[in-house]
Fold this protein.
Amino acid sequence: MILNITSSAKDYLTKMTEDNSKRYVYLNVRGGGCSGFKYEWNFTDDTNMGTLVEDVLVLDAMAEMFVFGCTVDYIRELGGSYLTVVNPNAKAQCGCGESFSI
């Protein structure tokens, strides 16, 4: 599989699509951020934009090479909750986890 999604992340993504009247969450990787590349999250109804993962996430076709083998997880902590991408291919990552370098 290109990308793994934990059960807590899948539940969260499903809820977000229901709340935003879209069928899927869309994940893309763009140049930028403090480490070189950054994850971009959005919503879509179009599965032609990339690969459908776990029936809830559309992964941009160009982003596949940057997130191959990654895990999307939803973390709940006392200070808040957030969606994160655990990227074993990243050589560096910024402190907030939104950008990375390969």
